[in-house]
Amino acid sequence: MNRDEIESLGAALAKAKREGGMIPAPTGWPPSATDAEAIRARAIVAMGEPVTGWKIGATSPEAQKMLQCDGPVYGPLFQSATFASGETVELTAGTLGAECEFAFRIAADQPAGQAGFDRETITGLVQSCHPAIEIVGRRVESNGFPPVSAALADFGMNVAFIHGPAIADDRSVDLAAAPVRGLVDGAETNAGHGRNVLGHPLNALAWLANALAERGGGLKAGDWVTTGTCLGVVPMKAGSTVTGDFGDLGAVRVEFRA
């Protein structure tokens, strides 16, 4: 893709995200990995609002199979699509489902250019851990889940992010062993554990910090980071309520309207 095509597509994706709409698949879709990152960067600018955090996707073998990739991807979170547990969220065109995830709030800026984080060292940047739900979907017309480069360009497939209350004394909790259930209107649809996220949700957070540093960026104080589904994709429809039940660690809930 040339520069004008990347600029145009980034702007179109941003407009579709703001308005909850879809765009036809452009010529040459899905893009190359290089073009996908350039489209994402342009789309972030075209949103016209600050990035308030990041979503990580494809952190489990099942999700990687779905997106036809062998490692994680990430995309931006925006304030206009960030909600507290219990709020009602619009179900937009292209929405594919809900994911129950662990999310972290970042306490301090990542030192410029610093990489090499692992599960232990990344905790120095963490303020709190929360049960969360991410709504995933696409802005480009197609069927099912797109290949990874298309997902990468399209905001990492983020539609909305819902955070629950902070987990008390989360440093003493074994997040990998934590059971997580997805429920729709009180009926369980999916179940999993924190270990389904790259073995431990903090592994995903460390991966993101390193990936951002490699691209000249980094985590910022106050950022939200949601680390990938613990249990696959929870199906839902307008008028339904999705709950992420994290057992003793708490719960997060969102209702959908058409």
Describe the structure using short key phrases:
alpha+beta; Fumarylacetoacetate hydrolase, domain 2; 12 strands
Structure description:
By secondary structure, this protein is α+β, with helices and mostly antiparallel strands. A hairpin with a 5-residue loop joins β11 (241-245) and β12 (251-257). It has helices at residues 3-19, 33-47, 61-67, 148-153, 201-214, and strands spanning 51-57, 73-78, 82-84, 88-90, 95-106, 126-137, 158-163, 179-184, 187-193, 224-229, 241-245, 251-257. The protein has a 7-stranded mixed sheet with strand order 2-1-10-5-6-7-3. It has a 5-stranded mixed sheet with strand order 4-12-11-8-9, with no helix packed on it. 23% of the residues lie in helices and 31% in strands. The protein has 5 helices and 12 strands. The chain has a single domain (50-257), classed as Fumarylacetoacetate hydrolase, domain 2.
Q: Would you tell me which CATH topology applies?
A: Fumarylacetoacetate hydrolase, domain 2
Number of strands: 12
Report the portion of residues in β strands: 25-35%
Global morphology = globular
**Largest sheet, order of strands side by side?**
2-1-10-5-6-7-3
What is the CATH domain class? Alpha Beta
Question: Mind telling me which CATH architecture this is?
Answer: Alpha-Beta Complex
Number of helices: 5
Number of domains: 1
